[in-house]
Amino acid sequence: MSRKSERLVNLTIALLATTRWLTKSEIYRSIDGYNGDVDAKERMFERDKEELRNLGIEIEVGSFDPLFEDEVGYRIRPEKYQIQISSLSVNQLSLISLATQMWRGAVLSSQANSALVKLKSLGIESDSEGLELTAQSVDVSDENLTHIIDAISAKRTISFSYMNRDAISEERALEPYGVGTKNGYWYVAGNDLAKREVRLFRLDRFSSTVKEQGRAGSYEVPADFSMSELLKSQARNQRCRLKLRTDKAYSLRRFATEISSEEDWDIVEYSYASTDQLLRDLLWHGDDVLIVEPAELREKVALSLDRIENAHG
User: First CA to last CA across the chain, in angstroms?
Assistant: First the structure.
């Protein structure tokens, strides 16, 4: 989880669990991540409040005694935070169920729970047991995914290096619209600023850490954007026949059906989504893979190898 996401989770839990209004000074002292001078903390807190409100989380503002001009405080009422299940469709409930299974384990982890511990040390009681929160943690090994999700939430442009079909790293700038998985891979889709069109990128082809650039809210996601429709283009509905060296190229075998074996080789039928994706997958395994058919694929691999040799010497 990124530091920003962790701070937002901590802030949400603290405002949900508190039994009274929390002042800004108490929030700054109890939640990690509010650093710098007073102005810096103020700006960070205002951005965090706006981001939570954009997510549909209602933050109430009030004071300890309405008859006096005390310092204002903040809280989130649990009854306004909860989802109204009765208003959800069957499909929406299914999506929530799937998301709950994927995000598990970290909401009240040691990091998130630290805010409640610090509040208690300040003499502020909280009711963490009364929070109906689903434990959440994303089960992915690519840390770029969390950076991309943060950028999508803030509507901020990202930049990264990406390996093209010729295994050459290119700098790309993207206004990210959404993320999703297909065939065991994570993808991000968005407006490619160089191509000026919506493109799909596979995260395991990133050759650098994602960087955010520009200001938040710098673009809008088109109303007709659909991540699921874009991912349909990645369906493995094409076939070819390959030779895989025995006990090699295990990542290819996930999408292959073995036909026969001969000395040092297994002959398989391999499914793939596009020629570009196939070439990247095959070139990665070098001489552990041979194309049996169709013949035009062999020619395309040969051309790609020539381009790689010319580019890298």
Answer: 40
pLDDT in tens, 235-270: 777 889 999 999 888 888 888 888 888 889 999 999
User: Which pTM value belongs to this model?
Assistant: 0.46
**Residues in CB range of 108: below 8 A, 6 or more apart:** 13, 128, 133, 135
Instruction: Tell whether 15 and 120 lie within a shared domain.
Output: yes
156 and 49 within one domain: no
Quick check: is 118 in a domain? yes
Work out how many domains the chain is built from and give that number: 3
